[in-house]
Amino acid sequence: MTGKLIWNDIRQNKLLSFVTLVFMTITAMLLALTVLLSVNLLGAIDDLMAKAQTPDFLQMHAGEIDREEISQFAGKHDEIKEWQVCRFLNLENSSVSLGGKSLADSTQDNGLCVQGDQFDYLLDMENKRPEVAKGEVYVPAGYRALYDLSVGDFLQIGSCKLKIAGFIRDSQMNSMMASSKRFLVNEADYERIKEQGEEEYLIEFLLQEEADTGVFGTAYAEAGLPANGPTVTKPLIRMMNALSDGMMILVIFLVSIVVLLISLLCIRFVLALRMEKDMREVGMLKALGIGKKEIRQIYFSKYVLLAACGALVGLVFAYLIQGPLVKQMQELYGVAKSGWQTGIFSVLAVMLTEGIILFSIRKGLKRTEKLSVLEALFLEPREEKKKEYLQYLLIGFVTAACVFLMLVPENLYSTLSSPDFVTYMGIGNGEIRIDVRQTEDIARTTMEVAENLINDERVEKFTVLQTKNYSSFLADGTKCNLMVEEGDHTVFPVSYVNGTAPEKENEIALSTLNAKELGVSVGDSLILQTGNGTTTYAVCGIYSDITNGGKTAKADIVNAQDDTTVMWSILYVSLKSPVSRQEWLSEYSSKGIKAVDIADYVAQTYGQTLQQIKLAKGVAAGAAVVIIFVVIMLFMRLIVEKKRYSISLQKALGFTSGSIRKSYMIKGLLPAAVGIVTGLLLCSVLGEGLCGMFLQTLGADGFRFVVEWEKILLLIPALALLTVVLAVRLGISEIKKVKAFECCMRKE
């Protein structure tokens, strides 16, 4: 009996039932998609890192090493399970080509390596350790799509040619945000090509599970072991691996939360309208002796059925949509080995979503229990004007929320793809970046490049920044290694969260992650130890940085007489107008100088992330357009139905259907237009803050959107407005079916 009542109710209220089902489906789909992507990403990364046996602590070092010294250190620390020293042969990008495509414009440090002896393994596309034959090479998986490579193509290094036998996943350097990429070769080929590059060392440690990498890093620094390079820990490696796809998941999660709020609001409003319409029927059921809980259960059962259908359809759509979204993460990390967990978590997410909606519906239905039989039969409905006002208000609210959903991923995409974003990466806002790394005498080569720039009349301004590694001491005696970038940081400044760039001799600026880890802020002091003694420095600024693990420092010249080895040098350049940047870059690249356009640097570094955010933009825009269309079409249809008597009376008085539709068109468009403007404001206030909170965990503080105004003020509002116009037109199309004589057949 109950089933028949439910089916009859759905048939008699097809539109309201369909709209409720759409909301339940979209909400379930988005949250299930978030869970599916998260479990797939984290599961695949954990599986890859487990099979590759990623080191817990890694110290890169350029220069000579003493293995016996490291062995003695390892023998004194019980938290060390295993250790090894891996070689990495840095290659000059201009001498390398992949499948006939030169790597001269690559911003990555590309090099050769052999398979790790005890851990830190490079794995093939089946996550197994490949056997590399002589004359063969395994190429980073991220390069396959980037350079359109396939097995059988060749890697050319100078006059040496190696055949691509397959592709590898590197648990450390998969992400393009990692500045280096390793090519796996046979040991004989490594020795043969060794003279064509500069050798570095990766000093790696596997620690016991309970070991603290921060404490271990301090012990390593205090032991005075080789540390001429960045330090990386396993948590940082995991975070960098998850970042590119994690940004996409963040966007989809944000969309799912906003859609859930919209769904709750709209379904509750539709429910209120329905209960008001059925109030007399409820009174009659009560008069016949049917209990209030039974009445509530009749209505609630319908929504349980719709929720079950919405959950099932949403789950199916989530599995279908995840296909293109997981393609990149499966390429880089493999397929997660947690199939049953993925299914369980996605089902739980859908159940949670539908449970929240049903809980809200159940609370709304409890209103029927408070009405007596007489109140239900004879209580007058709420004032029509108030109900109509609420519907228009909801149109504005939903439009604002959907515009917000479209704008946030669009602004995030334009920000990360903008050259200006480099200032949040710890990179100066120049036009061109020149790296001096793989040379025997970095300091001398840097001076030669600087002399070229001084004599180049096309150069407007430039600055030379040299990175050195110093031991640092805090006030409590804590010792740590600090990578300090020396030079004039006022020429091309980065984004400072607090304070200013170092301008005086005894000033130093710290990256946000370094400042937090060391527990210092602007005005505090720390001590740097150089070859000529120790000097106290005042912290003058805190800046955003997500390069080199986000742990860097900037200062003027630490000590002009100090002979500390330069780890690498970077020169930032801006050209005079109207000098062609591409011609200038080609000329300097032909001299063997690694010069790249900052815009290209950003595009290569964030290429994987931008690709995923682009997909998330599509999901967000699609969901927003569907919601705007369904909600506005429904509410305008309801308004027309409520105003049927009034419309009929207007026609009887001589008004045409066209003039009546025009007035309702204006009524529908006005709140939507206000909603579009409100969405723009919400994005600039809330959207920026939400994205900033996520990027802050990576060291990018003080985040600001870089806005493409033509999209923000034209394209997206135009898309939203077009959707609104179509929805309003469809919603008020019923007006032409209203007859003039209807007003004579009943009273309003």
Tell me briefly what this model is:
This protein is an alpha+beta fold and 748 residues long.
Structural notes for this entry:
This protein has 748 residues and is of the alpha+beta class. It folds into 4 domains: 1-56 and 235-381, no CATH class; 63-228, no CATH class; 406-417 and 607-748, no CATH class; 423-605, no CATH class. The protein contains 20 helices and 21 strands. The chain has an 11-stranded mixed β-sheet. The longest helix has 44 residues, at 234-277. Mean pLDDT is 82; it is low at 373-378.
Provide the descriptors you would attach to this structure in a database record.
single chain; 748 residues; alpha+beta; 4 domains; 11-stranded mixed sheet; 6-stranded mixed beta barrel; 20 helices; elongated
Amino- and carboxy-terminal Cα gap: 34 Å
Instruction: Domain count, please report it.
Output: 4
Oligomeric grouping of the chains: single chain
Strand order of the largest sheet: 4-3-7-8-6-9-5-2-10-1-11
Portion of residues in beta strands equals: 15-25%
Q: Helices and strands: which structural class?
A: alpha+beta
Largest sheet: 11 strands, mixed
Q: How many strands in all?
A: 21
Summed up, the helix count is: 20
Morphology = elongated
What are the low-pLDDT stretches, counting only 5+ consecutive residues below 50? 373-378
- What is the arithmetic mean of pLDDT? 82
